[in-house]
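Follow-up to my post from last week.
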Amino acid sequence: MTPSPFVQTPPAANSTLLEVHDLSVHYGYGEAATKAVQNVSFRLAHGEFVGLVGESGSGKSTLGFALTGLSKPPAHIEKGRILFGGKDIASLDAEQLREQRHGGIAMVLQSGMNALNPVRSIRNHFVDIFRAHGHVERSRWTARATELIGKVELTPTVLDRFPGELSGGMRQRVSIALALSLEPELMVFDEPTTALDVLVQHAVMNTIIELQKSENFTAILISHDLGIVLESAQRVMVMHEGRIVEDAPARQILTNPQADYTRMLLSHYADPRAEVVELPGFADRQQRRAEGAARTEAATHTPTVSPRTRRTDQHAMIVENVSKVYPAPRRGEAPVRAVDNVSFTLEPGAALALVGASGSGKSTIAKLITAVEKPTSGSIRFGDLDVGTLNRRHFRKLHRDVQMVFQDPYSALNPLHTVEYALTRPVVNFTGLTGTEARRRVLELLDIVGLSPVEEFAAKLPHQLSGGQRQRVVIARALASDPQVIIADEPVSMLDVSLRAGVLALLEDLREQWGVSLLYITHDLLSARVVTDNIMVLNGGAVVETGNTAAVLQNPQDDYTIRLLDAIPNPRKDVA
Amino acid sequence: MTSTTAAPRGADGLAPARPGPTDAPHAPSPLATSLGFVARKLGLFALTLWAAVTVNFLLPRLMPGTPADAALAKLAQNGPVSEATKAAIEAQLGVPTGNIFEQYLAYLHQVITLDFGISYTFYPQSVGELVSAALPYTLVLVGLVTVVAFILGTLLGVLAAWKRGTWLDSVPTLVGSFMSAFPYFWTALLLLFFAGHVLRLFPTSGAYGPTAEPNLSFEFLGDALYHGVLPALTILITSLGGWILGMRNTMISTLGDDYVTFAEANGLKPRTIALRYAARNAILPNLTSFGLALGGVVGGSILVEQVFGYPGIGYLLFNAVTNQDYPLMQALFLMITVSVLIANFLVDILYGVLDPRTRR
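User reply:
Got it. Predicted complex:
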């Protein structure tokens, strides 16, 4: 190991490693510039593990990129200094900056899935770094790469694989090993586990925490998830609209948060196992039932233009012994049993949570119910429709009553069409309303999902809406046909914590007031707890546990359910 | 302040002692995988080749009449045709004998032995002779220029994308798109006029001088090269811009990819990032267009060869079509089809070499 050029003496604990002084980062120049980071100052001591938390658009990633000297135009440092080991990062030229990456600042990117060159083997990724910095002798390349890959708990055989042959979690581990190979003083993790599955997320996070202790680097963990940060970091900086609004030890953030914004973020965390679960705008089910109050204004409206103002015939969705087997992906491999002998009944007005990690078959079940896929065996019935064998001509009949709300509101709306257009299409297709009546219905739908003034929202294009507003439009679109069943596939996982409660409340009110049934697909047990009565836990396509949501979560029987519950970052776990 | 109950390590199948999901015992070795890949592509190639050859056999037979009928009809315009003449023409052009299956076998035999009969236009030369005389000129001229244009254009494209916004970007991009907007023949005519006629730098037609005798002497090769300059320049000028723009655009998008940012974060040398990360991935989609261009080589550049009186395949094809020379046309069409297939096969294999994701 060659010593870093920036560290002359072995670092004493608590000595300053990084000092950020009055830093502002802008996109563009002059009046029109977007001020992503404004007047940020902080100090980082050797060996610290600091969390940087904020919602989307808070400037946390921009700050991370500025610290690592990776800001790309139009982003630029407007003013302020970033002193790393006493030198200003911004004053380095390109070659100096490149050289200081060994023994300096390393970064692990959010989309670790795509952070590896698809046409280069993992071994060559290591070799490229060794060659660029010359800090490992050629004869030790393999030994060093094997050692590093072992640190992130991968087997040496991974070295001869290509990125496409590894799972998302493995790829993110490889990225971490690559960053480690630089022997960095400071590691910046930018949402390192966001794109990963819950269980994998938990395992990768644990690896990061342990590495930070054993390798003794200083770490900044950037995340939108206060839970994850509080579980791992000793100190937390909360960022909001480009400024650091709170900078305090993790325990203090938890027990005595000072900023309103921090308090708001914290209020959205709760333990799904608790007796009573309350979120902002979301009183506990049982309590609220007793009061009989609606949560959003939505529920007080009844559809006026729709031909079916009150449902006369309500059907249950009955799924019996359904399996779906896909042919083997490659020759010589076993066929994939995506759904394995699943049965359930979704009564009118009921809410059922389908819970499981990715690959557990939850989305396949959604496809089967909407007749996008046909079951290999078993039956699905909805009223007098046999969904399992439904042919294309009768799809309209099914889809009038069964509608989807998708996970990603950012790609579920055509960016070229206005909200009014997006809503008019299903209204005209399913209800037969035209002209001014159709328009009245569209405005009514917007009113129902709480987007007012309705006229104004109808004229907007998707990019003019926030994520939460977009998801409301997607829900309005699903409601256009006045459906009996809404399948919501992770409807809030892409939204900021503070926006989630509103969307969830809307879904539940629709259900309670209108008798819409809700199939809620998620890996997020907390949201399942607040919006559903019953829960089904899926693992490998099969149901491993089912029952009343609160009961199952409070007293899980299956090992898999227990692991899912343990994987939830829960900042209060240690305090309680 | 860490989690109290850790999930069993290796939730994504990663326990160090246990083999990961990709280490399944039945995973084939890399060599077997690549052999299997080549074998599959070869099988596919053989199948499409057979289909193309068969279609080439069936199409003329679906048309009414025979070549002999056509020739007789022409003669009949000038008066009655005697039985002897009719028999002579039919003997000369050949009338299919036997049922369709026997004809098919005979045709396959002909294809395999490269026996395509005798040309009408260049009677009594055989089609085989004509094609083998023209092919080297086209292969060397158009083929070489296509490869050179691809390599040069790709390199310029890489440079333009890497130095985006500088003169290294704007000059090649602007000049490239300007030049490729010219039609082939217009560029050819301009070159002919200025370089050939006004400045008298290069000969204006033919593949070699009037006194030269085609052989493999240095003297002749030099002469042929000299005659090839203008047609080659025409093709280069018109096709270069496309390659520059194509490569520049795909590379700009790969430069924005996360693996490039990550490579930068890891302090790789700029040259490594540009070539092994950005350009290496950007070239993949362009290979497809390169395959198509290579396949088109044997078809020749009819316009260019025509303008320069260059005795290549394009020139031959033009003559065959204008003179209704069926045997020549059929042989040329077959050859063009086959060469497109071969070029695509080669690009498929190249893809396999360059992109591990296609190897499965």
